[in-house]
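Morning F.,

Quick status update on the modeling queue. The single chain you submitted on Monday has been processed. Sequence for confirmation:
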Amino acid sequence: MPMMHLPRGFLRTSADAFRPKTIIDTLFDYGTFLNKNPSIASDSRNTQLEVLVIGGGAAGLSAAYELSKIKNSSGKSALKITLAEATDRLGGRMDSQIYLDPGYKNKIFELGCMRFPPTSTTLYHYFNEFGIPTTPNFPDPGKVPTTLYYMNDVYPWPAGQDTPDSPLFKRLGEGFKQIITYLLGDPNAINYSTPSKLFDFWAIYDKTPTETNKAAVVKAWQIMIDRYKDTTFYTGIFQLARNPAVMQKLDLWTTDDMNAFGALGVGSGGFSPLFPINFLEIIRLFANGWEDNQELVADGIVTLVNAFEKRLIANGVDIRLNQPLTFANDPTNMYFLPSNTICWEDTNKPGYRVKLKDGTEKFFNAIVVATTTRAMELMNLTVPRKATDNLRVQYLSKTPQAAVGIRNLNIISSSKLFVLTKKKFWYSKNNRFKRDLVQNIQTDGLFRGLYCLNYDGDSQQDGKGVVLISYVWGDDSDRLLAMSAQDRYEHFLEVIKQIDPDFAKALEENRITGNDATDPWKAGRNYIDWQDTPYQYGAFKLNYPGQEANCHDVFFQYQTPSPTIKYPQNIFLAGDSVSWAGGWLEGALPTGINAACAVSQCLEQHVATGNPLNIGASMYQYDKPPVI
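Structure tokens below.
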């Protein structure tokens, strides 16, 4: 969210390069839709219906916010929104730990989302609406002085270079870029006259959005789907890197090359934990431009959470924290813990009854479930509504394939470890070596990626510093679970001493430690393992081969036909783990808008024209058998 990272500007090197405004799997511009429609719907009746939004992360916040703006014929809120969050805070994986630095900007530990590509049109719509500034000074590998450490050898990576000063990594970088260009085309050199690649067709459609041009984009992406939806990242890359027609004049890769690429991912912090992932997920990252010009929010992504919360309160939304919810499978015998909020289907009219933690009971006409898919499963969303029913008679009975997708889709692990420093010691004026130190270290060791963060801006070298000591995902993250934060730091420090002794000394001399509860080490908020975090159960969704059809089913669950309120599908799913962009806010936020529009339609309101209910669910075919 993005919890993944790819080399900054790896493909798009020119100012006028093609940068998509939509996600390839939907071709829908949420930013434009929201800009044109301050309210996504209206209601000509003088009524106020009840809607429950479960989950206070990005998707839940966007769903609740958009629904709270809908007015009825009296000009009052047409919907009474209750937002139930299982934890003691809003934000989900938007989790900024803030430390004061008097006279300077606050210092931020971004435990979740920390980098934001400007191609995220939905996200930047909210940034602009709420007046949240971003800055392009994230210290990505190669943007700042970097060191690569591979097989116990040190490779300098000067700022401004695509790859380290190494024939091996220059060759791998050129090879990987060649592969992506072969698959998608060159966004810096769009061929408008004789288009042949996805970027060509997409740029033409972006300029002239006709149905004919759209069909050409769909055809080009369908080719990628058919070829790679059942292929692992490892197999897909290695086969292409061994193909002379793809590599042209470049050397074909060997298994040793794949090991180097997997260990360092051309500066990504390690691709090998992602090798079992569906190759189409990786292609999708580049197609959507998420590798390009990633920015950070200088005041922390929590500013977006706070902005949403302020608007929700102003719009009369009832925010309930510490409300973990369970869907009852037998309302006549509720044996659940009394601390849980209980939800069950009303037998007298379409909707649901919910017993809140304080004992009050409410009726809701519709529900948005905006959590991770693992949380959805653990709250009994996919089990029978009654003990005597079969699996198809569950809360998603009108979309049973979505229940299958919830159970199947893969959510990857992720871990981070931060330290706060007395000074920004990587600048020459702030260390005893009187020279600039590296600001980024990438390694094939267990800590993978280290980043020195300056939230005051590159021109301000005074004030405290933040060092993200370790950022890992997948199997690398799982290996750390048995280690405390202190044990991890000590292990990583020994490795850093081997890589750059001066950096290690400056880090130790400047690391802030203390005995009070505000100290990040004592407070226990200097690290995160998302797979071990209650009500999250993982970091972000990445499909395995064969799961694209599952992703389609959960994403388009909101489009289940419900033209009347008599027998509607009135539970709608949202969250980045039911999106085409797991790990990115641009995945979560649109699903909240989808669910909000679906609720509005379900409750017979007038949804604004050009809304995401009209995205073609059959535009692509994700369930074709693999070609043998």
